[in-house]
Amino acid sequence: MGTGGQSDLELGYVEVRLPSGEHRTLFHGDIIGRLWSAALRLDDPRISEAHAMISNRHREMKLLALRGRFMAGGKSATDVALEAGMQLTLAPGLDLEVVEVGTPRAVLLVGADGLAPRGVPGVLSLYGGAEPRIRNGWRPDAHATLWPTGEGWMRSGDPPVAITGATEWNVGGTTFRAWIEATDTGVAPTQRDASLAVPLTLVARYDTFHLLRSGRPVCVLTGRSARLLSELVVLAQPCSWESLAIELWGPMDRADLRRRWDMQLQRLRQKLRAGSVRTDLVQATGNGLIELVLGPEDTVVDET
Q: Using DSSP, how many helices (H) and how many strands (E) does the chain show?
C-alpha cells in the first residue's frame, strides 16, 4: 500500500484557451459562469451564473454541467472527461479549447476483506456486516461515508476525519481499509524530454522573474509565481512551505493557507511547463520544506 498525506498531493488541473486566445488554468471545484466570483467568468447572457464546474473524479478531470447541457467534441453532454484538444461549446459561438489536462498525483483506494479495492471518485457509502459492500453516492442507511475534497479525502465521523495515509476503521462490524496511492510515473521532466535540460539563467527581481536559455525565448513570470521563486533565491536554502506561504498571503487559517499554496505551486508548474522550463525547478523535500533545485550549469542572478 502506498502512503501519503493531503499536504503532499499535487492537484489536478485543466488549462483552457478562451475565444480571445487567453489561457486560464482551472482546478477541482472551480466554477465557470457569469458570477463575479466564478473562477472563469464569462460575460455572456446565455451563460448561467454557475454554468459548469471542474471536478476531479479519481484519475480524471471532468467538466460537469450545473445548468442545462454543453457540447463536447460536437456532442451534447452533462459531464465529460476532459482531454487535450477537446472543444467545449458552452453556447453557440462560445467555445473553449482544452489545451492541457494534468491529473492528480495520487488517488484514494478503499477495500475490505472480500471486496476488491476501488477508487474514490466521488462520495461513496460503505456498508459492513455479513455482506460488506460499497455503493456510489450518499445514502442515509450507510454505516460510513467517504468523499473527496479536491485536495484530499474525508471519512464520516463526529467530526469528519481527514485521511492522510493508510488507515483502517470499523464500519458496521467490518474492517475497512483506505490508502493513498501515487499515480505518477516518478520520471522527472528532464528525463522525459532532454530539451528541458538546457542550462538556465535565473534572474530574480521579486515582482518579475526571468528564466533565460541560450537560443530560446525568455520565460517571464510575474505576480506570486515570481515572488515565490524570488524568495527561494534570496533564502538560498530550503524553507518551510508555511513560512513562504505567509510571505505571499499573510497570516491566515492554516487549511486555507495550504489550499492557496497547493494551487499556487500547481499554477507555477503549469507556467514553467508552458514556457518549456523543467517543472522540477521547485520541489518539496518530503518533510515540509520547499527548495529551488538547480542544475550543475544553472546560474542565479539576484536583482531583488
A: 4, 27
- Can you give 55-123 as a three-state secondary structure string? EEECCEEEEEECCCCEEECCEEECEEECCCCCEEEEECCEEEEEEEEECCCEEEEEEECCEEEEECCCC
Cβ-proximal residues to 187 (8 Å cutoff; 6+ apart), any chain: none
3-state secondary structure of 224: helix
Q: Is the per-residue pLDDT at 281 higher than 80?
A: yes
CB 154 within 8 A of CB 167: no
How far apart, in whole angstroms, are the C-alpha atoms of residue 154 and residue 162?
Answer: 4
C-alpha cell at 180: 493513498
36: number of CA atoms within 13 Å, CB side?
0
Peptide bond into 159 cis (omega under 30): yes
Write out the DSSP string of 13-44: EEEEE-TTS-EEEEETT-EEESSTT-SEE---
Would you state the pLDDT for residue 228?
Answer: 92
With 0.70 as the threshold, say if the pTM is over it.
no
Q: Which residues pair with 60 in a beta bridge?
A: 57
SS3 content of the chain, % helix, strand, coil (to 5): 20, 40, 40
Single-letter code of the amino acid located at 62: K
Mean pLDDT score of the chain: 82
Q: Residue 148 in 3-state DSSP?
A: strand
pLDDT greater than 50 at residue 19:
yes
Q: What angle do CA 183, 75, 102 make, to 5 degrees?
A: 20
φ, ψ (nearest 5 deg) of residue 209: -145, 125
- Dist CA 283 CA 297 (whole Å): 18
| Residue tagged 466570483 (cell numbers) | 37
* Other C-beta atoms lying within 10 Å of the C-beta of residue 159: 7
Q: In this structure, is the dihedral angle defined by the CA atoms of residues 191, 5, 273 and 85, taken in order, positive or negative?
A: positive
Angle (nearest 5°) at CA 15 between 11 and 17: 165
d(CA 89, CA 80): 12
DSSP state of 278: -
